[in-house]
Amino acid sequence: xxxxxxxxxxxxxxxLTLLVIAVCCxxxxxxxxxxxxxxxxxxxxxxxxELSFLPDELxxxxxxYAYIFLKPMSDLIEELFENEFELHxxxxxxxxxxxxxxxxxxxxxxxxxxxxxxTKPYTASFADSDSIYTLLVTRNTAKYTQTEEAIQGxxxxxxxxxxxxxxxxxxxxxxxxxxxxxKVSKLSKQIADMDFSGFCSVxxxxxxxxxxxxxxxxxxxxxxxxxxxxxxxxKLQADIDMERRLEKQRVEFFAAASHxxxxxxxxxxxxxxxxxYQVGRYKDRETYLAQSLEITDTLGKMVQxxxxxxxxxxxxxxxxxxxxxxxxxxxxxxxxxxDLFMQKDLTVEQSISPxxxxxxxxxxxxxxxxxxxxxxxxxxxxxxxxxxxxxxxTETTTLTIENTGAHIPDDAISKLFEPFYRGDxxxxxxxxxxxxxxxxxxxxxxxxxxxxxxxxxxQGVIVSVRF
Length: 467
Hints:
Layout: H1 2-7, H2 9-35, H3 45-51, H4 54-59, H5 67-80, E1 85-90, E2 95-97, E3 105-109, E4 122-126, E5 129-139, H6 146-153, H7 155-192, H8 207-276, H9 285-312, E6 322-325, H10 326-336, H11 338-343, E7 347-352, E8 357-360, H12 362-378, E9 385-393, E10 396-404, H13 410-413, H14 425-431, H15 437-447, E11 451-456, E12 460-466
Parallel strand pairs: 7-9
Antiparallel strand pairs: 1-2, 1-5, 2-3, 4-5, 6-8, 9-10, 10-12, 11-12
Helix pairs in contact: 2-7, 7-8, 8-9, 9-15, 10-12, 12-15
């Protein structure tokens, strides 16, 4: 709250004006209250009639029972005369005593009431004491006068009127003084934030009006000057950012690709040289020619996959989607892999719900399924199972492919979709993998808005795809 008050000129002016008006009003009220004439309802002589018989009663009473008469008389006087008078009892030395216990001093003196309107003093004594006491009734100076009471009675309404008047006056005064300043401040802040859409119209010809017109002119000129520059900068920055991203992707990808191509080329070159010069084991040309051909096939696969990735990563590439039957596509691809399943002695179990349609590119999805099924075959040992399931729940279609007898290290799962990543280098050399299969699958599924996850299970490894 304090921070807000310090930061708002209108609040400061409002509170200061409200305080000044309120102080002036209540100061005036205090002066009137002090200067009001003292008007009392009863005369001091009226009390003598009530007090005249009391000394006789006390003279027939023992001293310790004086309170039986003094306190009731005091209460009676206060009640009859509406608290305008007070009863006092003094010792012979002029010291005031308590009406409840006349042996107890209250600290007052009879001389304290010399300038106060009072009755004539009455002397009193007691039946068992020779001490002389003085009885006196004085005007109660603490009691408000009628004028003061009337003024006091108007205080709540007067406070409300003063408060409302002060608030209304302070509000309009602060609004008149700070409204144009706030408009100028708002416009200047917009200009500082490079926002030139604001306009300050105060309708005044004084210094504030001149300042607002100058800010309006400055805003228009700055907007005209900077608009073309901003547009050019934005276009240039967008081009630079796009070029940097593409360049970074190209450098990283081709660096990895060149590294992956270098190894098989080096192996082929070494084998061919060994066979050409008939060095050692390379005299067995038939064996190493077959190995070189196998490596050449792997290179061919890698080049094909590089071409696919190059096409998919082309800026602005969009796949041609149509409404296709996903269950038929899966059954067709499983049928195409039957020979491979038989060669590896793998059992295939399918649980595929019929008539599930999705919007997708058939060729790309076929490539993704082939890569997933190929991995299931390549990384499953003989006499294991491949479990394929497809079902739909509400708006989600889920495909799972689980191959038993396999396992992936936990720290390698998060890296499987990186290009050229191989979790097990020796097994990839055996299976001819390029390290690009899952990267291609991930890219294709991203184009279809699908999610893919790979996890270990009790039986093996499961791939889950959700459309």
